[in-house]
Amino acid sequence: MKKVKITIDDKEIAVAPDITIMQAAEQLGIKIPRLCYHPDLSLEGACRVCIVNVEGWRTFAASCATRVSEGMKIQTNSPEIRQARRDLIELILDNHPRECQLCERDGNCELQNLAYSLGVRERLFEGRRKRHDIERSSPSVIRDAEKCILCRRCVRVCAEVQGVFNLSQLYRGFNTVVAPAYEGPMNDSVCIACGQCVNVCPVASFLENRSTDKVWEALADPDKHVVAQIAPSIRAAIGEGFNQPAGTAMTGQTVTALRRLGFDAVFDTNFGADMTIVEEAHELVLRLEKNEHLPLLTSCSSGWIKFLEHFYPEMIPNASSCKSPMSIVSTLLKTHYAEKQKIDPEKIYMVAIMPCVAKKFEAERPEHRTDFGAPYTDAVLTTRELIWMIKAYGIDITNLPEEDFDTPLGFSSGAADIFGTTGGVMEAALRTAAENLTGKPLDNLDFTGVRKTEGLREASIKIGDKELNVAVANGLTHAKEILDKVKSGKKTFHLVELMACPGGCMGGGGQPYPPYGHHVLDREVLKIRGEALYHIDAKKQVRKSHENPFVKKIYQQLLKTPGSDKAHKLLHTSYHAREPRGIK
């Protein structure tokens, strides 16, 4: 490709002709301020904070949305540019709540950091400010329209990455607001509760619906047996909240921190992942034998399941009926564990630490309730919420000793660890399904053909005398591609792993905010987090779910065989078609 020569701040550089001024400047180490820009989303050019001067142009250009051209001479800073940027930030701030110290993003807010770096120290444009009530209808996501700066990142991620199109800008001028259709409640919309709007929002206009207060209350209640479970992706991401590099594995330290917070027992969601795989692999083999309801669609991602119920209800029979690992651990805790430990299940309080705000929605589903009417999972904390609780208790997690999970629901195989990254559920299922199909142990446990951080991958895998067509998709626009191929008959698959969030659970809506200037959808960060889980898997002696000795014991004592009536009662669930409430 022929490059074009441009000059930026008196430095000549040859660059590809299809990049933007902002991207070209970064090649010279020049960081142009930005607010609406996000590297994984379409170009918006809405905030104008990234303006630069192009010689010969009558007005400033938005560097995020302006492509370079031959001979272009660009100035990224001058007294006039700096003042224009300050004016833009001052105008945004004067229509913004004055509650930085009370805000979730205090210290890691892109607007706050821009105001600081541009030297904005007072409000100059006092006047009428927009007013909106905080919208709390969703168990997963809070929408605070007063904080919204109309950057449209949330609108774009919902449409372009997730394919849901739940959010849009309504009305005009001063009254413009980002909301679902008709400015209705989030819980009555087609929101799939994935929380990607939370991840990309620069100012906390979208947040997870916090559960920390009720968890503190439970921990302070001497009559409650408070138990935590930790999802696989937490251990590879929690360190980022304590200034550790991405991908730093902190499993043992997290267990120790939870015990110091006052939890009576700490279990591993990975145990539930092993149980899921044993049941799901059995389910796959049965469907292959009967040649019905194929492809089998994985069902661990609660955001993906809600998407399925809204947009592809005709394919619900294809979804695995297995509960998610979180719900399996919670169910076994209030049944098998309670009985063995002689604890009244009504006094057990289960807290799930998840990377995903959609798990808050899953915990409230009526299908996941005990015989005495309580939810199996009483509260879900995101990685961010747990980080805050640990800091609130003055615990220095980076210097804690490593402790082990409690048993029996704390032992897991390496196959369970990789559940947290895209392709991991597929690989874990294949390790067990392959041995179920062939009756022989696998020579190679690594199905590297399904490992990919990018959004979509298809592969054919030879198992014995069978060739399985499989697909892995993360981010629901890619899920749509797979499902549309299946519906149209263009492609035949046997097993499909679908995850709502980019990179799988590693990019979940409850993961740590990136440092200022970085973005949570950065594929490199997701890849590094995923590699941490593959490293944990590789070091484990037990790497197949069906070889977990505690899983075997539960089948011997309680479930008998995979797919048994008892297994279906405790470990399986059902789904149903949904539509926005009030819309027919």
Fold and architecture overview:
Helices cover 33% and strands 13% of the residues. The chain has 584 residues and is α/β, with parallel strands linked by helices. It has 3 domains: 4-77, Ubiquitin-like (UB roll) (Roll), CATH 3.10.20; 141-203, Alpha-Beta Plaits (2-Layer Sandwich); 213-571, Rossmann fold (3-Layer(aba) Sandwich), CATH 3.40.50. It has a 5-stranded mixed sheet with strand order 2-1-5-3-4, with helices on both faces. A 4-stranded parallel sheet has the order 11-10-13-14, sandwiched between helices. A 4-stranded mixed sheet has the order 12-17-16-15. Helix 11 (358-363) links the parallel strand 13 (348-354) and strand 14. The protein is globular, with a radius of gyration of 25 Å. The termini are far apart.
- Return residue spans where pLDDT drops below 50 for at least 5 consecutive residues: none
CATH level 1 class label of the largest domain: Alpha Beta
The rough form would be described as globular
Total individual domains: 3
**SS-based class:** alpha/beta
Number of helices: 18
CATH fold field value of the largest domain: Rossmann fold
Mean pLDDT, to the nearest integer, reads: 87
